[in-house]
Design a protein that fits this description.
The structure is a homotetramer of 153-residue chains.
Chain A: H1 2-9, H2 19-44, H3 54-75, H4 83-104, H5 110-152
Helix pairs in contact in A: 1-2, 2-3, 2-5, 3-4, 4-5
Chain lengths: 153, 153, 153, 153
């Protein structure tokens, strides 16, 4: 999504970690939220099979809500990242995993099959950003540590 | 967004109006919601100018919420469209117009400039879908009328 | 909800129209959004009847989203009300009406029966606020008109 | 909120843990989401102090989103609780704590003071439900274990 990319790089204080990765994670989350909303509705339209798909519908609705909230939190970058963003990303990884699992149980429904793939991609992107966050924080701590060590010599 | 396209065409009962237009409208709405959330936060980060941007921040937050809800409603296609979808699309057109106007007042902030453009595109896409909906409904009424006329002969 | 009341009256610039009515409208919307989310899920749990309740589930999900967004917009009062708030309140009135109608079709399901009542109350509260808004605007216009007339004498 | 209570007890499959506690947790979350949205807007209205309140505004917006999503997930009870609900409740407890801390830093703004209290109440309610969930799961595991032991005799 070109828009997200352009919006992120137009900030006076762009995020310190790799911009491209950030934009990709937001894209993946947005796509996943949309796919889950569409899959829930498509499942509800599967005449004769709706009751078997109840678990999938609920999981889709949950995953759509969780991804939407995670996008909101990740979009707010004026303040430095805090524990909340980590806890919410963790919830999001769980949501994407469970939703992918549920959808993968009904590959005969093409919408479930595609949705499972989208959830998997989203999960991977969030994990990647989580790791970057951690590396970034680790870098800050390490440099602080080195600076401290140096200054204590 | 390939995902939206694939999800829409995977339904057993795909929407009756032009699929490509539908996917584009969902894309535009999703992008607009994301851009508005990012613009609100970027405005909040404009040290020394935040108070001048209060109207813009509020409008961005409103527009993000309205677009997000409109995506949800447009994604639910198992049931035939009703008056609600029209009323919500109307609210969305108003939101995009007002948000574009607000953002266009601060072109010196690049994020506002880009966000204004995205809101304009979104507004146009929703108007287009609204018109298709109307034409489709009109078509249904007309064919029903013709069928009725014929049957009454 | 005492919290909403306390929050509204704690502002440095409380809304100009009757505070109590405002708090009641927010309460009604919040309650309606929650009831609709609960009703959608309870319908999904009605083994053997889910397919008959598909229209109700969809309408509940739509109404929950629309009410949630209307709460957000009505809560933002730092900026003067604009056309968007009217358009969104209109969409909300339609949502509550349609959802009440859908739920009222299945009074044998207690959750649908209660949800219909909550939607009706919410619809009435929003209509009331809409009217106050209009009266307030009308008052402004009238006083402006009178002031203008006086000044032109 | 009588509505939530009535909706919960009207289900054909009411939640297995204590209904009253559940209703109170939903109430607290809903109230917290509303209070945070109102506080963010009230902070934005504090002329001359908005820039000092940026951290508070962002935290309020985040907490409102997280609480809203947690309400949605907790409302869906047709399916048995899974890891997601725990992860999301954890994120919610973090959000309420951080938001209460931020708001408590500006007790001179009455809306921040009240919002801090509401966040604290919400945090306590979610912790309580989390514990009940765990006890319930523990109970299930224990009884299963005892049943297994008995059957193996």
């Amino acid at each position: 999504m070109i828009a997200i990319d352009a919006m992120l790089s137009s900030r006076i204080n762009p995020p310190e970690y790799h911009l491209q990765d950030y934009a990709e994670a937001l894209d993946a989350l947005i796509e996943c939220a949309a796919a889950c909303t569409l899959c829930a509705d498509a499942c509800l339209g599967e005449t004769g099979k709706v009751e078997q798909l109840r678990g999938c519908i609920t999981m889709n609705l949950d995953c759509a809500d969780v991804c939407a909230t995670t996008v909101r939190l990740l979009s707010r970058q004026t303040q430095p990242p805090n524990q909340l963003i980590h806890a919410q990303m963790h919830a999001c990884v769980v949501a994407c995993q469970l939703c992918a699992d549920q959808c993968a149980m009904h590959p005969m429904h093409k919408h479930c099959k595609i949705c499972a793939e989208i959830c998997h991609i989203c999960r991977a992107e969030i994990c990647h950003i989580c790791q970057e966050h951690c590396n970034f924080l680790l870098g800050t701590i390490t440099s602080a540590g080195i600076a401290e060590e140096k200054s204590s010599i």
